[in-house]
Amino acid sequence: MDHPTTPVSNPARISRWAWLLFPLLALAFAAVTTAIRARRIDYVSDFAGGPASAAPWQPRMVVPGQHNESFEWMDQTRQMFMNREWRVRYIDYENALGGREVYAASPYRWWLGFLALCRHWVARAHLGPSIEWAAMYADPLLLLLAFGLATVVFVARRFGFLAAGLASVALATLFPFASGFTPGVPDDNGLAQACIIWSVLPILAGAGAQGPGSSGSARRWLLAGGITGGVGLWISVSRELPILLGIGLGALLAAGISRRAARAGAAAGGAALPWRVWGLAGGVTCLAAYLLEFFPSHMGNWEFRAVHPIFGLAWLGGAELLARATTLIAAGRSPVTFRGVAGWAFGAAAFLALPAAMGIGHNFALLSIELPTMRLSLLPGGAAAPNLWAWLLQNGFTAQVWATLLPLLIVIPSGILLLPRMAPAALRVPVALALGPVVVAVALAVRQINWWNGADAALLVLLVSAAGALRAAPRPRLAAWLSAVFAAAILLPGVFQLWPPGAGTSNAITETEVVGLVERDLAYSLAKRVGSAGAVVLAPPNVTATLYYYSGLKGLATFGWEDRDGFQAAVRIVSSTTPEEAQELIGLHGVTHIIIPSWDPFMDAYAQIGEGQVAGTFLERLHQWNLPRWLRPVTYLVPVIPGFEGQTVTILEVVDEQDDATALGRTAVYLVDIGRLDLAQKAGEALRRFPADLGALVARAQVEVACGEGDDFAKSADLLVRRIATGADRDLQWDQRVGLAIVLVQAHRLDLALPRLKACLAEIDEEKLRATSTILLYRLQVLRKALKLEISDPALRSLSLDLLPPDLRSRVE
What we know:
By secondary structure, the chain is mainly alpha-helical. The strands form 2 sheets. The chain has a 5-stranded mixed β-sheet. Strands 1-2 form a two-stranded antiparallel ribbon.
């Protein structure tokens, strides 16, 4: 039975119902902001009609803020259902042909899958939209129900109603912490923050429960803290490991504070806590999580960014050292014995096993700074910088900076409470314990701004412990109201950061939303082009993730740290110094398409990573349209969206080697299609080097029409008429013959164009349709409709229309 040192009643002697208002207000704020953001995501995803009514169903949700890592969670949850596997340990859609291992922990995928199944069963919905619904509400539900409610109830019972009220408000408004539970951006970051809080709270409860006959209670609480800390390591090693070190630091501080009380026999906690139980529980949980994730076929990997038994061993050693150190601090001195020396030696050896293994294996990736660590929050428009100093130099003291830094003021009153006579030692010990994780988390947040989420989680626990200590304040009513005002002052800036801009009422589409819509349309369009044959794309990492989620197109590189091989392959291809080297690497990795969007500069980053500059690389040749003969440009028309004018996507298909005239002719026609008439004109001039090639003459005539060169076009048309009179066009490829028919119509030679057009329609098949440029296919449809010709096969007729963008399709249907 628990014997807390102080009663659990309301510290301010105010009606408990008054403090209940705080959780209700926090719940209302979180629910309203979630509803506004979810409605906005639905609006953007359905923009211009969207694909919602398409059959069969297609993925449609546009993730706000271009946090394309969220697609990974939805992709892997979808794979979990498709393959009927409860663990996802391998995927083949990144680092295509080779695939890659998956080390991300399973619990968050299970949470997404559970919610998707609930909607699937209740609403009788397809699993696809059910997964998107789960992705929309997984994190808000985690905050509101599975995590927030349990935390507030627990804090109310163990630390009082003032602490519960402040904790509820902090959960909903602490910035950037609360942004980790943003709707529509599925990520295990929020679950990791929940584990941080729950790995510390039980230990504080155990420290507060110290007293005569309470050893069993403290043991149970530290057992619970070890288990939740082990789960935290399972979810995210990089998040939880520093917090465990911070708990050790807090325990040493608590032992020092309680030293005098412990010598006097008072129940001060801290030094007497059963740290070995905590270490054993954490170590066993680590081992169980490792077996659950990797047994039997994936064991033996020494990857320290995922849970591993060595963390449990180091935890056991650290707990042994902590137990002995806190006892030594409390006792002052202890006799030197063989058993004591052996205990110290075992603890040190086990604790140092982790850094030793990292050093031996040169596996320090756990400490590396990666792109996700440079983002402050999951909200659209959130700050991004390598560290705090760079962020301040970049933006200055903005409202977002103040909302992030102000919660640090919680440390000041907490530090005051640690002073003698400010509170009983039993109440000061939990504050000291909670201060350790804050010190470690803030130190990391200075180095990586993404760690401000972890710092906020630690500060929230410190706020709870400090509010609990106010139960012994001389004037509890005044102390309670002052603490509420203080908390409101430091949390209010976060409210403004978390409130959706424009409250979701604006219909204007932002730039990041436009990019999401365009990339979705690109995925749909390219999937139609390649058909069942599929594709392997070399593209910027964000675009690679988007293409697979929306259309199942595999790719090489993403920002996932597990995709090292795919990323390195992309760097090697783009930074190749010769086309021959690039071609060999492209063939080795099965790349079928190269995609260069104008709004995403990461293709240049590939070249700079490989060669230090773009100049002299394979990518520079592509930028200059100096294409090798095994690349063929594919027309893609970017949807017309206000604010996104002038953006383009270059799609290059890997094909069999073409002759120079054919390759240059197709490039010239492509440049006409995308409106680059200046480059098209230069390509048309270059085509004069092939006077005997009929395909080159057809392409040159198309360029002359587009550029308004009437006299030159008339000469080219006359030459074409003379050449085809001898049957020279029989050797042209299908798309070139369609181009010839269109040129003849433009030259007012319908008598020559009509039989050739009929022959093209008679020979049409799926492969020819998919290989034809969008503009050429549209013009073919216009002529077919004007001349009342039909494609005999209904499936091919439908495909010929489906390959056109909606605005062009509507003109010829």
